[in-house]
Structure formats: structure tokens, C-alpha cells
Specification:
The protein is α/β, with parallel strands linked by helices. It contains 8 helices and 7 strands; from the N terminus they run αααβαβαββαβααββ.
């Protein structure tokens, strides 16, 4: 149930305007993204991310990479240029259809639809690198926290996961604060967006301490946490770098 509305929203967006749904700049709305520019931005991002990982003194293998929340494959295609194989996972079948349409990497790139709050199709210790940006923030915390543990599960020894998620206050599980958060960030936000004619996209956060606890419990180490200086929102957005 936590992912039902997320899936419905992105199935619709993926069918109507998939590239804009991934990178929502006003001038690119109504299918006005130039695909070459769209995918070039993905290459720039992955190049910068891998340079950042290297500056941290981490050198994951270049065998297999996972792009979680791949959308139209902007980053998955770029990962294929740096790794032997890349797998993109998304909740929306319409997004995956678009990603397959733009796939220029052949069998080295695979796209999978996943609608559950874990990643059952991915084997333990099967990836050298896991990357997720502007995805977990659209997923309710009860699911996003499970995905974080799954990132650790699928990492090979010495592998690196890097993911982005906004930070916010801690809510005691089952407490009034958590229930109010779930209502305000879920049905209320969707209703408020719909009456203004906007897509009912949810924005969520998870407390930084909680994220670190999940990573450590899953058996990995948080190497670096830093603020995303490109974020346009008031809520502080963090990038977590994790190694197995």
C-alpha cells in the first residue's frame, strides 16, 4: 500500500511526459526535452559521482552497477559507459518502456520493473556500485528505509552505494508524530497538488541518524554524508556514501 500511489503517479507521468518527469525544468515540459541533452546530463552526473567516490579513496570494481529509480534510463546508459553491465530498476512500467526505447547499450544494459518495497530479483552481493538520486525522496519512509538495507544486501565486498535522501526530524515509530507525518506527506499532499492541477508527487525525508543506523545494521559503513548543493528545496538533502 505504501507504494501504490507512487506507482500510479509515475505510470501516468511515464506515459505522458517521461523525460520531464525525471528532470522537471519548465522549458522542457510537454515533451520538449532534447533527448541528446537529457542523456548528456546523465553522463556528466555519473562522471562527477565517480570522481567524487575516487576522491574519498574508494575504488569499487567496474563490473556491475545498479541504477535504482532509473526512470527513462538517463543514468543507466551513462553507467554502461563506466561499467561492464548496468541494471536499471523502476516502479513504473511506462518509464521502463521509455528506457528500453532509448537503450543504445544492447545487452549490457537491462531494465527491470519492481513494485515491491524490496528487490527480490537481485541477488546478494551482485553489484560493485549502487546509485540512486532524486528517487528515495518520492518514496514513503517505510519503503525507502527498506530499500536502503537492500542496497547494502546487493553490494559486493568493497562495493560502494551512493544515494540521496532529504533529512528531517526523527519520528518515533507508531507515535503521533509519525502518523501526522504520514497523513501530511501522503494523502493531504496528493490532494493539495491535485486541486492545483499538479501531479500528485510525494516528497519525503528520513532522519540522518535513522539512515546511518539502517546502513550499519545491514552490515555496511557510512563513509561520507554531505549536503546536496544542487537541491532546490528548503528541506536539507543529503548524499550518503556507503561501502560494504
Amino acid at each position: 500500500m505504501a507504494l501504490k500511489h507512487v506507482q500510479e503517479t509515475y505510470e501516468k507521468l511515464g506515459a505522458e511526459d517521461p523525460l520531464y518527469a525525471v528532470l522537471s525544468f519548465s522549458e522542457t515540459k510537454r515533451n520538449r526535452w532534447n533527448p541528446e541533452e537529457f542523456f548528456a546530463r546523465g553522463r556528466e552526473e555519473i562522471h562527477a559521482v565517480l570522481e567524487f567516490v575516487s576522491r574519498l579513496g574508494l575504488e569499487p570494481g567496474r563490473g556491475r552497477a545498479l541504477d535504482f529509480g532509473c526512470g527513462a534510463g538517463r543514468l543507466t546508459q551513462a553507467l554502461c559507459e563506466e561499467f561492464d553491465e548496468a541494471v536499471g530498476v523502476d516502479i513504473s512500467s511506462t518509464m521502463i518502456d521509455t528506457a528500453n526505447r532509448f537503450n543504445k547499450q544492447g545487452g549490457r544494459c537491462r531494465y527491470l520493473v519492481n513494485t515491491s518495497d524490496h528487490l527480490p530479483m537481485l541477488e546478494d552481493g551482485s553489484f560493485d556500485f549502487v546509485y540512486s538520486n532524486i528517487t528515495l525522496q518520492h518514496v514513503p519512509p517505510e519503503a525507502s528505509t527498506r530499500y536502503i538495507a537492500e542496497f547494502v544486501r546487493v553490494l559486493r565486498p568493497g562495493g560502494v552505494a551512493l544515494f540521496q535522501l532529504p533529512d528531517g526530524p526523527f519520528h518515533k515509530p507508531g507515535g503521533l508524530g509519525e502518523r501526522w507525518y504520514a497523513f501530511r506527506r501522503g494523502p493531504f499532499r496528493r490532494f493539495w497538488k491535485r486541486i492545483r492541477g499538479k501531479a500528485p508527487v510525494e516528497i519525503h525525508y528520513v532522519n540522518r541518524k535513522r539512515v546511518c543506523e539502517i546502513v550499519e545494521k545491514a552490515g555496511a559503513t557510512v563513509v561520507d554524508v554531505r549536503e546536496d548543493d544542487t537541491a532546490r528545496r528548503k528541506r536539507r538533502s543529503l548524499f550518503y556514501t556507503v561501502t560494504a
